[in-house]
Write a structure and sequence with these properties.
Layout lengths: L1 H18 L3 E7 L5 E11 L4 E10 L6 E7 L4 E4 L4 E6 L2 E11 L2 E6 L3 E15 L3 E12 L2
Antiparallel strand pairs: 1-10, 2-3, 3-4, 5-6, 6-7, 7-8, 9-10
């Protein structure tokens, strides 16, 4: 069973890399009943020039839904403070993934049509650690348009 899960996960990563040059990050999370992916967005540290992707997980249940955000470093993702843009190095290309707009003291990033963030739970994939218990696996892919 573990071999079948590993093959499914490997196949998912291989197929996504064949479609286009994409940056893929794998996230292992503690499973929560009723948890789903709510969305994903780009964000950056304006002073240090570092960019990342934030994935929001929505937990259903109880009286109110709760959002848990997880920040992920993505290889090749950078922030240009002069232009207020987030870029992905895609082979020899420099793709603009998000443009920042300053409102009062905060900067919000709007994703461009040149980059898409896809978050998928890897089907039937579970990671077992000696002390960690069972975790769900998610693949976060940033795919530049061709």
């Amino acid at each position: 069973m573990r071999i079948a899960r590993a093959i499914c996960f490997t196949l998912l990563l291989v197929l996504s890399s064949l479609a286009a040059h994409a940056a893929t990050v794998v996230v292992d999370r503690e499973p929560s009943t009723g948890e789903s992916v709510s969305g994903a967005r780009f964000d950056a540290d304006l002073r240090r020039g570092i960019a990342w992707v934030v994935v929001d997980f929505l937990e259903h249940g109880g009286e109110e839904d709760q959002v848990h955000s997880q920040r992920l470093s993505v290889p090749g993702l950078t922030y240009d403070s002069t232009a207020r843009t987030i870029h992905l190095q895609d082979g020899g290309r420099d793709v603009t993934c998000a443009v920042g707009k300053k409102v009062l003291w905060a900067t919000r990033f709007q994703t461009t049509q040149q980059c898409a963030i896809r978050v998928q739970q890897v089907p039937q994939a579970r990671v077992y650690g000696s002390e960690e218990g069972e975790k769900a696996r998610f693949a976060v892919e940033i795919a530049p348009a061709r």
